[in-house]
TrEMBL record:
PROSITE patterns: AA_TRANSFER_CLASS_5. The keyword Transferase applies. InterPro entries: Aminotrans_V_dom, Aminotrans_V_PyrdxlP_BS, PyrdxlP-dep_Trfase, PyrdxlP-dep_Trfase_major, PyrdxlP-dep_Trfase_small, SP_NH2Trfase/AEP_transaminase. This is Alanine--glyoxylate aminotransferase family protein.
Amino acid sequence: MEKLMMTPGPTEVSDRVRRAMSAPIVNPDLDDQFFLFYKALTEKVQNLLQTKNQVLIINGEGILGLEAACASLIEKGDRVLCLSNGIFGEGFADFVRLYGGEVVIFNEDYKIPFSLDSLRDFLAKDSAFKLATIVHCETPSGLVNPIETLCPVLKEFGIITVVDAVSSIGGYVIKPDEWGIDVLLGGSQKCLSAPPGLSFMSISDQAWRVMESRKQPVVGYYANLTLWKHWFANKYFPYTQPVSDLYGFNAAVDIVLEEGIEQFALRHKAIAEKVRRTLKTAGFEIFPDEKAASNTVTAFVIPDGIDDGQFRKYLWEKCGVMIAGSWGQLAGRVWRIGHMGENCREEKVYRTFVAMDKALREFGYKTHRTLASIYAELG
Ligand SMILES: *Cc1c(COP(=O)(O)O)cnc(C)c1O
């Protein structure tokens, strides 16, 4: 049985990306061609991110980008505003504390996106923050925050904006330069459908100035972004680059750019809407406020009486399809289908629903119509 991994990261990896990873290894520190390849790759990522800001690709899974941004920007005692309405929002605050930042939380319910008005009211009373952290798509709950309106307001108050868009880049066209995003963070294993292992980011001039005018040195080496600032001019990487991962990532970025970033995002939106309509028609409850549901992942409430772990084990082992549960306060409460990147294909979503129909029957859950038939009818 061919297996299908419909999780919100890692996502399915195409043959083209896997083939690219099998190309011969070069010496990344000594081969001029490799520096040129790397430079061209950062330019493609600038294109993907619609930005003139410098792009870095660093060698660790998405979390490294979040941690590196905190390590490089924050000095002991800096006040940081953490917008938190989900598990990654809360986690961001932990990183800020780890690097000596004084955290102020601006929070909202897990189901509700941040509103511009309440952020404005909050900032009118207190805006003395060096930076703010925001999560674009809260992957564990399937919620998207309106960064296109929140970031410009934070910038009005002179606050550096750091946005975790790990699970949304590609599923949305994000415009850091227009929206005032100083540091935009992505990962290889979500919508781009490269294997896990790389973080990428764009960094504004203002954010660079903050990093380069620190009074205290950055704590740590691997997470120190300032080491990367002049890598191309100096033909110097802070450490040996994972050549194969970068070849795979390069092919993954090409795939998105060839389709076109607008078209790629539109396809995500269309499939996301169909997934939610299907689930709702079959009687499932979508978890977040639906106006804020993500183009890339759908979280929906697990029906009463079905054991989360047993159901997903059956679905994977007997039907060959993996969906995700969640964790933290959402553990055992929601299931998630990741319809991003290579997973965002009609036939894969259809196969997921066929498998879920079988598993739901096995677990005694009755829907008046099958998910697969509802999905197929939406055309
Ligand atoms: C996937 C993801 C990350 C990276 O973290 P892992 O859980 O280790 O994969 C960071 N932020 C968000 C919003 C993510 O979805």
